[in-house]
Amino acid sequence: MSDAKASKTMSCPECQADCQRFGNHRNGLRRFRCPKCGKTYTEPHEKPLGSMTVPMDKALLALQLLIEGTSVRSTERITGIPSFVCWCLPAKSARSSWAG
């Protein structure tokens, strides 16, 4: 198997079969489909904010605004991140910095 072909496959987490490339996810990650079980997966990726799906650049901007003393409502308006997520960002970022 060539190096180019090897980079386009990954192992299925369910049945350990070699999965083939199956397009892209809407967030730009490559998708793979297992030929045995038919399940689709995205390539492995890191989530520095745990289960939060906020892009890192928006999260950093929101944290900078909150640290500077901007209100949560103004931070929501500027970044487009909902206010309940803005309330969770400082706690999530503190936990992720302590974990590493």
**Which percent range fits the helix content?**
40-55%
Residue ranges: pLDDT <50 for 5 or more in a row?
Answer: 1-6
- The SS-based structural class is alpha+beta
Structure annotation, total helices: 4
Q: What count of structural domains?
A: 2
Our estimate of the beta-strand percent is 15-25%
Task: Report a brief summary of the structure.
The chain is of the alpha+beta class. It contains 4 helices and 4 strands, in the order αββββααα.
Report on the structure:
The protein has a four-stranded antiparallel beta sheet with strand order 1-2-3-4, with no helix packed on it. Helix 2 (56-67) packs antiparallel against helix 3. It is 41% helix and 16% strand. It has two domains: 3-42, no CATH class; 56-99. It is an alpha+beta fold. It has helices spanning 3-6, 56-67, 72-79, 83-99; strands at residues 10-11, 18-24, 30-33, 40-42.
Itemize the secondary structure elements and their pairings:
Blueprint: H1 3-6, E1 10-11, E2 18-24, E3 30-33, E4 40-42, H2 56-67, H3 72-79, H4 83-99
Antiparallel strand pairs: 1-2, 2-3, 3-4
Helix pairs in contact: 2-3
